[in-house]
Amino acid sequence: MTDNELLVAIADIMDQKINGIRTEVGEEIKGFRTEVSEEIKGFRTEIKEFKTEVSEEIKGFRTEIKELKTEVSEEINGFRTEMEEFKTEVGEEINGLKEDISSLRIELKQDISELKHDVLILKLDNENNIIPRLQNIESCYISTYNRYKYSVETYETLVADTQMLKEVVAEHSAILQKIS
């Protein structure tokens, strides 16, 4: 493998690991967003249904009040008092829901802040640990490559010289055997 191929392979491995981490973090965030979104949708649906029920009940009260208005003014005052209490209760319920939503927003902001912190830690770890180690590995491979690159030419010369020595020794051995 050439240096570039090794570097590309190392870069691909790092990309795969980082993409895996990104995917996991992204999926966790998406899941959390989906859960929160579904809860908010549920609250909205409940509020709409409650609002419809309240609206229908108020319409019923108004009809009864109109009918009873001619009969007894005290009862009208009683119904008005009940309606005000009901409005107060509804207002308190809505305020409670607003507080719940507000606390959910705070929790979401805290969770997002924690996720940002975790991503920062990962980035710093890459910068301070992984990248320097990769650079060290790269420098080792490059220095080893440079050493062997020049010795290959010497190796080929040694093989040729050894072959020539074998031939000369074989010739001299044959000559010495004839002499003896």
Automatic annotation (TrEMBL):
Keywords attached to this entry: Coiled coil
Segments forming a coiled coil: 33-114
Protein name according to UniProt: CCDC90 family protein
